[in-house]
Amino acid sequence: MQNYIYYLPIILSAIAGLISLLKQKGVAEFISAISSISVLVCSIIIFRGENFVNSSFYIDYISKVMIFVIAAIYTATVIYSISYVKYIDNPLFHTNHYFAWMNFFALSMFFSVETNNLGLLWVGIEATTVTSALLIAIEGKKESIEATWRYILIVSCGLIMSLLGTILIYGEVHSLDISVALNSHASGKIVILGILLSIVGYGTKAGIFPMHTWLPDVHGKAPSPVSAIFSGVLLPVALFGILRVSNICFSHEIRMFMFILGFLSVAVAALLMTVQKFYKRLFAYSSMENMGIALIGFALGGKALTGALIVIICHAFAKSAVFYLSGNILIRFKDATISGIKGLIKKMPFTGFCLFFAILAATGAPPFATFIGEILIFSKIISIYGWIIALILGVFISIAFISANYYTGRMIFSEKEKDVKERKSLVNYVPLINILMSFFIIFLINI
Amino acid sequence: MLLIYSILQLIYVILLAPLLVGILAKLKERLESKQGPSIFQPYYDIFKLLKKESLVPQVASPLFRLGPYINFAFYMLLIIILPIITGFPLTFGPTADFIGGGLIFGAAGLIKKITALDSRNNYSHLGTARAASVGSLADPMVVLIFILCGIISNTNNPYVINNIFQTSHTWFTSIVHLFIASAFGMIIIIETGKLPIESKTQAEFGMIDQAMELEYSGPDLAIYKWGSYIKHFLLMSVFLNVFSLPFWVPMEGASFGYVIIYSVIHFIKMVVLVTIIALLEESISKYRLYKIFDYMAVAFVLTLLGVIAIYTTKGIF
Amino acid sequence: MDFEKLFLLFTSFQILLVVFIQWQVYIKKNIITFAISSFILAIYLFFLGSAKGESSLIFIAILTIIVRTIFIPRFMIVKLTKEHWRVRESAPTMGTASGIICSILIVILCYIVYTFTLYNYLKVRAGALPLAMILQGLFLIISKRNTFVQLIGYMIMENGVLLFGASLFPNLPFIFEAGIILDLLGIVMISGIINKLRENYVPDTLEEIEELKG
């Protein structure tokens, strides 16, 4: 009895996907909703169960968390899509194909996190590319098609690097089973090279610098539920791939590589967020920054690993909420630019109110769990690398926080332009100096 | 004895070079179901031109009249250096090695270009510009190929290279040999001006080499034409004797009779090569001028692949 | 039979075919050259499998012939427009000659880096060449704008990985190659649909789409 529960998410999504191909009205939506809710129930049962390893499945704590997150966001997206797809003008294909692809996409993700074979992990992540490609292109416009093609090409080329890395790992470990590889204590140069290549490959899928270039294009152009499920689950599943592979030989070079890549992702995302003109791209860069933070957490291990998992879970829920709300905004305003949206709190009060809290949660404000996760990661950085690196990371995260909330706040709370009534005076610099001191004082205290 | 061989080789090439070009012209016409000129037509042309008078432009310098003879002299030097009917060095063999041979080819071409510029004719300038751009990329490739041959044989002597390819089965069937033979084959088509690089028409867009001789007449033109026939013969001989069919070449210690027999065999090998070139010329059309550089890039790729192959097989780095 | 010499011969020929694809402008010729390259790869795998007694390699060879030599090229030629002998790459990123030279310089660079690093562990000198083929495929994707040529570049990368894995690690489980073939099929199908739409909007001009910058 215990074994069959692990097959259920895969089988249920597959059946739902196949049934959604039928052309009757409403069948696809209904069956997808039923399957997603039942998968959610299964995932809660799996989460409360114990770890399980056999020849086909390798379920440990991290897998259980990922299954739960995938199921939850899958359910939310399906339910939101039922209403959203009515508002897409000129869809490229019929909406029941949309639900079919969505179900197959969830199937491939469940397959990747449950399997016990490095080769099948690669196959699963490659399958997520194939099944999600057409979901982006449903709007049929020139920019959507271009974004889809960029996504397919960049991610597939990255995954080939990962395939090469897996071959090299196999060359030293002589087995593709994850359970065998994790216990093998391999430590040669070929394994390290293979792991580094796999990190680069799966990192392309996860939106890590410098392979992130497809991320803002896709999130900007895909319909909102698809952006939500990408940010919420697809990027973490790719990070899960990195985590599995890097645990085979967690040497110093690999940790350093992951840390540097994560750090640079946070930095680049934060800096690019300050100059955005379209709000969906802004939220996409915020996802990239959170994935960078999670990668730093994976690199450091211990408490930081817990922190990273907390960030992933909370970011999934928060960012998907942000994208659903921005979908509402796009439908009503028909404008994708930040400067075109003003005064949401008056025109769409419920959306504006929820968006305010959602973007606070996604960028890591207390009391939301993202903040707790970031604190855990910070404490581990301070204990390993010292204060300066942690502070620089904190500066970048603050830049991201301020940009995201400033632009969103402007969208929600702004009104018509008023006259500027400020007088210039030297005394106005005193508050500025006090603000800067509240940051630099940490160097004087310097624990 | 070696001196006799040298004189024999000189007479052999000078006399038979126009015949080869005549055979090529006749074959091309026959392949088009036409009757074609007689195979001795180049001889008739040369004799006709020798009887006419030379007209020299007023603005030309004394180099204009000397050019064809210097060009011919360079080619005569090359005849007695390169391996044509023998596989052992003759009297003047040590004058220049393989790379020196490549550079002398370049020098002969240089004289032709300088005298063409001297005549101030528009078409001659055009031809010189084109030949110079193509030559500046093709000549280093030739030198690179010869350096590779030197690495294979640990010498720079074309005769030793011939002997190695003739006797050693592994070197003849090695991948390095395949690559540099293909590269040199591509370069021959560039240097001798065959399709798809150049077409022998009277129209301006096909002319590269032809344009440089436009201002000449009389005996000067005859010597230039003869020189270019000898250039064809020499390049094709090097290709056959060193790269593609280095068999039956008499090596050190062969008898006089065998050398004479080999002269005949050599001419037959050249006729086979000329047939293949005629078939090639009849099947394709001329490239746009800028596509010639893509063609040369591919020849360069073949040479570089030969470099990689030799490091891989010889195991040196 | 000397495996290393055979390996060098086949891989050099593959690299030469990739350079030829870099040279060609007409798409149909590129597709046919790719089919020939896959066929030669399949023959090499067949010989390797029968000489070393690995039945999985023979099966992979047959699968390669069916999928990459027959099915995918036919699918791509059908998806080209009606006058498929005429379609060509109209807006390359860099000129043809520079592209060819860059391609071969990538091969040389890869060989040099390999000789200093991986050669000490893998002990096969010619193992650099499949890796060079992967980088050449990547360069093909960068230097051309047409959808089908980029797809061919991606498949050349996969051919390179297959060559590398099959020659240097002969016990690779079959499930790998089956996964590669399946994903290749999926990607090519999707690309057929994408290309039909992309060719109406193909970015011939060099201006970038405003909404996809930054």
Provide key terms for this protein:
heterotrimer; A: 447 residues; mainly alpha; two-stranded antiparallel ribbon; 18 helices; 2 strands; globular; B: 317 residues; 69% helix
Question: Could you describe the 3D structure shown?
Answer:
The complex is a heterotrimer of chains A (447), B (317) and C (214). Chain A has helices at 4-19, 27-48, 61-84, 95-114, 118-136, 142-173, 178-182, 189-206, 215-221, 224-246, 252-273, 279-300, 303-333, 344-347, 349-363, 369-385, 387-413, 429-445; strands at residues 52-53, 58-59. Chain A is mainly alpha-helical and 447 residues long. Chain A has a domain at 251-420. A two-stranded antiparallel sheet of chain A has the order 1-2. In chain A, helix 13 (303-333) packs across helix 16 (369-385), helix 15 runs antiparallel to helix 17 (387-413) and helix 16 packs antiparallel against helix 17. The termini of chain A are far apart. Helices cover 69% and strands 0% of the residues of chain B. Chain B has 11 helices and no strands. Chain B has 317 residues and is mostly helical. Chain C is mostly helical and 214 residues long. Helix content of chain C is 75%, strand content 0%. Chain C contains 8 helices and no strands. Chain C has helices spanning 3-23, 27-52, 55-79, 96-116, 119-122, 128-143, 147-168, 174-198. In chain C, helix 2 (27-52) packs parallel to helix 7 (147-168) and helix 3 packs parallel to helix 8. The chains are: A mainly alpha (447), B mainly alpha (317), C mainly alpha (214). The interface between A and C is large, with 50 and 38 residues.
